[in-house]
Amino acid sequence: MNQLMIHKENKTKKRTDTHDTLKEELMITLSNHCISHCWIYIHVSAQ
Q1: pLDDT digits (tens, 9 = 90+) for 11-20
Q2: DSSP three-state, residue 1
Q3: CA 22 to CA 18: how far, in whole Å?
Q4: How far apart are CA 29 and CA 10, in angstroms?
Q5: Which residues of the chain have pLDDT under 50?
Q6: What contacts 17, CB < 8 A, 6 or more positions away?
Q7: In whole angstroms, what is the distance from residue 35 CA to residue 40 CA?
């Protein structure tokens, strides 16, 4: 019973970690996209 609970906890923890990593990657991708988009916009406006 105890081993099963530990296994279940580890599984849940791993899922949460993966979710956080995906969220972080998404945020980085979004910010990178916004930065490049804004940079292009500024560059075009400056001309």
Answers
A1: 766 766 777 8
A2: coil
A3: 6
A4: 28
A5: none
A6: none
A7: 9
Token code pair at residue 26: 């998404």
What pLDDT shows up at residue 19?
76
pTM tops 0.70, yes or no: no
> How high is the pLDDT of residue 34?
79
Longest Cα pair distance anywhere in the chain, in angstroms?
A: 70
| Long-range Cβ pairs for the range 10-15 (8 Å, 24+) | none
Q: Report the residue count for the chain.
A: 47
| Distance separating alpha carbons of residues 2 and 20, to the nearest angstrom | 27
